[in-house]
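Homework help board

Subject: predicted structure for assignment chain

Our instructor gave us this sequence and asked us to write out the predicted structure in token form, then describe one feature. I got the tokens but I'm not sure how to describe them. Can anyone check?
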Amino acid sequence: MNIITKENIRNTVDSSISVVYHKFQSYCKEDNKAKLFCFFEGKDAPYYSPRIKNYFDNYINFKCNNKNNVIKLYKKIKNKKSDYLLAFFVDRDFDNSLENPEIYETPTYSIENLYCNNETIINILKNEYLINNEDEEFTTILNLYETNITDYLNKILLFNSWYHSLKKKKKLLGLDSTNVSLDDKLPNKFLKLEISNIECTYTINCIRSHYNKAIEVTDEEIQTSMNELSQTILLEKLRGKYLITFLIKFIEYLTLDSKSSKNILKENINFTTNKTIILSHLSNYASTPNCLNNYLQSFIKISA
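My token output:
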């Protein structure tokens, strides 16, 4: 059995970066000097690429596998910025801001949060359900979404606060890991997600029992994290993958209503999505922060 050590982690990271670095080097030629080289954490291109195309006809995407790799690669190749247009994109997560204008950070926890606000829901209603602002169903659905996502955010706040406190402890103690790997949604035994009937069944002790290898944090540390998060807009600052899970469930609810009970929608709708395709499927409907446009525009000035 392989033992996890700092050296093993470092070797894995170096190997991962090396693959992307060599790919980058292969593109370093005169013909590509006007193209935007884009370095992403993972499968973020479906969100960013349509927005990049607003400014650049030609761009090259690189998948770095995680946030740390993007940052390490930036440090490795930033000396090439005078020769090539290099753009780096990361999620903010629960980390402190990098405060580096050469690396774009989402103003939200991740790009997934940008798919789950009112702007996105309105776009989906207009284009997929053909429901406009003046229609009676519009206000009903929007109110239903706002009520339920607020309820959902409040019920996942404790879990997010626990994870937030882990991330803070890891940084404070200089640890390599929180010893926690999260799925795209909360464990089923923690929360029952049904629109208009969201049931929260977990406690701090449930979390500790389920993630028994996690680094230890006290109730006080968790409460401090909860206080910090409560002062923010939860829709923006809680873990984005959990919000995408809610959005998928809400879309399923509307589509099912149109086919069965018809309490809200009178005509059958066949619109569906899933976690595998949703980032590309709904990319045009997600919101675009001003800071992203400003970041991309900055490369236009450099290339001019």
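Reply (TA_rk): Your tokens look well-formed. For the description, you could write something like this. The first strand starts at residue 36 and ends at 40. That's the kind of observation they're looking for.
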